[in-house]
Amino acid sequence: MDMSTRMFKEEGWIRKTCKVCGKPFWTLDPDRETCGDPPCDEYEFIGKPGIPKKYTLEEMREKFLSFFERKGHGRVKRYPVLPRWRDDVLLVGASIMDFQPWVISGEADPPANPLTISQPSIRFTDIDNVGITGRHFTIFEMMAHHAFNYPEKPIYWMDETVEYAYEFFTKDLGMKGEDITFKENPWAGGGNAGPAFEVLYRGLEVATLVFMQYKLAPPDADPSQVVEIKGDKYVPMDTRVVDTGYGLERLVWMSQGTPTAYDAVLDYVIDPLKKMAGIEKIDNRILMENSKLAGMFDIEDMGDLRILRETVAKRVEIDVDELTRLIRPYELIYAIADHTKALTFMLSD
């Protein structure tokens, strides 16, 4: 699919292939060779915030929702994290799940069209990474804007979605345009699929822009209509949906440049826990270097963790066992803070 949007054409964006992962991406920087996504790039904002102003969760959430209200989107309150309107999933893992399947199928009207929302989402797929990588959570808020393009009732599509993202990041948050990349990477989930951009900034994925236009193919589907995405077969949908996700916690982290995202958004829990547990204070440089390198790993087994420990220990010039002794209590505190928040939302909802 041609993903050369209006903005890319008019403002001189260049389509390149990442020399590390081989994925196509768009950039304003003619000298850039990598897509900006770990492990192709390290975090570049730890200790050097990538947003001029420091934001709290509440401030960043309001900044986002207000921006899209100004662009004609209706603000929608968050849905419960337990999706009582569905019988196929136990937890809401993304804002689009609030509207699957009834709104997307056209059987129910959306609460606004287009709309904007900040939806608490819970996922356990990355639970082994929580506390270690600095960026993974079991609960996070997905800020989003959605447009439901029904037959004969188009709202907007790829051109506007990319332009909204770039305007919000550069004009409202003050990010540097030459450091933003749009990486092409198809998306699939919940029985739907479509082309997508991952928006990356200084080594961190800050948003995903999905253009949902396919549904799972029935057994008797016309072969000429079938496309394959990530191993599954799909056919075109009648309704085309703009499905975006902006990482609230990640953007707050970007604005603060703390060693981990947990320090930026869960400090009110982490600091008391460290005091109560008597956690030894360690050099901030160790935490920062650990976070920079951990961001390039997905911890799936103890072998991965051992490689990470050895890499960090070499960089900060201390013994691996000493590094583990110092940093493991921090990782556990981070995980406890995250898991407690997830349980609180699940029980309260």
Automatic annotation (TrEMBL):
Entry GO terms, CC: cytoplasm
Domain called Alanyl-transfer RNA synthetases family profile: residue spans: 55-349
Alphabetical UniProt keywords: Aminoacyl-tRNA synthetase, ATP-binding, Cytoplasm, Ligase, Metal-binding, Nucleotide-binding, Protein biosynthesis, RNA-binding, tRNA-binding, Zinc
UniProt GO molecular function: alanine-tRNA ligase activity; aminoacyl-tRNA deacylase activity; ATP binding; metal ion binding; tRNA binding
Keyword RNA-binding: yes
Coiled coil: none
InterPro entries xref list: aa-tRNA-synth_II/BPL/LPL, Ala-tRNA-lgiase_IIc, Ala-tRNA-synth_IIc_core, Ala-tRNA-synth_IIc_N, Ala-tRNA_ligase
EC number: 6.1.1.7
GO biological process, any: alanyl-tRNA aminoacylation
SUPFAM superfamilies according to UniProt: Class II aaRS and biotin synthetases
Pfam families in the record: tRNA-synt_2c
CDD domains assigned to the protein according to its UniProt record, in alphabetical order: AlaRS_core
Protein family membership: Belongs to the class-II aminoacyl-tRNA synthetase family.
Family matches, as PANTHER family: ALANINE--TRNA LIGASE, CYTOPLASMIC (PTHR11777:SF9), ALANYL-TRNA SYNTHETASE (PTHR11777)
Protein name: alanine--tRNA ligase
Organismal lineage: Archaea, Methanobacteriati, Methanobacteriota, Thermococci, Thermococcales
